[in-house]
User: What shape does this take?
Amino acid sequence: MFGRSPQSLLGIDISSSVVKLLELGMKGGKYSVEAFAVEPLPANAVVESKIENKEDVAAAIKRAIKRSSTKTKEAAVAVSANSAITKIISYPASLSEREMEEQILLEAESHIPYPLEEVRLDFEVLGASESDVEAVDVLLAASRSENVDARTEVLEMAGLKPKLVDVEAYTVENAFSLISPQLPLHGQGLTVAVIDIGATVTTLHVLVDGKIVFTREQTFGGRMLTENIAQHYGMSYQDAGQAKKENNLPDDYEPKVLDPFKQLMTSTVTRALQFFFSTSTQYQSIDHILLAGGCASIQGVDAMIEEDTDTTTSIANPFVDMVLASKVKISALSNDAPSMLIACGLAMRGVE
Assistant: This one.
């Protein structure tokens, strides 16, 4: 299921509303943005992280490839945390990789609630176990074959070669290493909530010392704002989306439509954190909130969330310390930066 590649990779993030493409390189010891594009998806092409119309998704990827002018053909995608099963298991450190693989396959059915022939699975040795000096901790990851195959198929339909499939939570963890230098103590010793508010889904990732300890998705996103605009002004959904994108709305838009939506965003973030605290016996506070996703760019929402949660809040930007290729437009990249964490985490796998 998961692969490794020393070559340049296109990180392809397939969300419910857009396809995001990113290619990274390395110049002078710094990451460089070599190619970038965001292409919209037709309504219902992807529903609840499931690809419903492969032709539409493949067409959007093709448009992104053309717009970005990339020549790279190998790509990486990710499945959502909700459609993946991950477990950390301890095994004797003395086992060879082949012996460990055989052992994992023998025991996999006890960890995965599906027949093995219906899943794609892989494992990665994390390192020495804290609870047993003679053991290592191993991350086992699995997803239904249909989830993985649908993503690799649309890449192939778009003329790309699927190189690896990751889990979104771990791509965010990967990209977080680019953002942590912007935080106090470079994020060390901090409990950080990365809250990704997309078109239809809000995902809370909690990281401690840069490692994922909790992930949860809930239904809420920017599509609701578009629907509210359409309803309030008697527009079609498409016209409302265009007006929102171009910031071409009547004077009463902010107090009548946008401000109530920002309040809903704030309440959603607060409830997500409260749920985390209610399920955790180890963590009862958050040191920093990072807002990601398309809705993170709504002006003033970071200050509103900071005031409501009494927690320092900032907007995620993994590109702060990167070099940009001449063909990459800095204004477009800056606008989309908060929504590029998954694509970034995937693209990093090609230059690690």
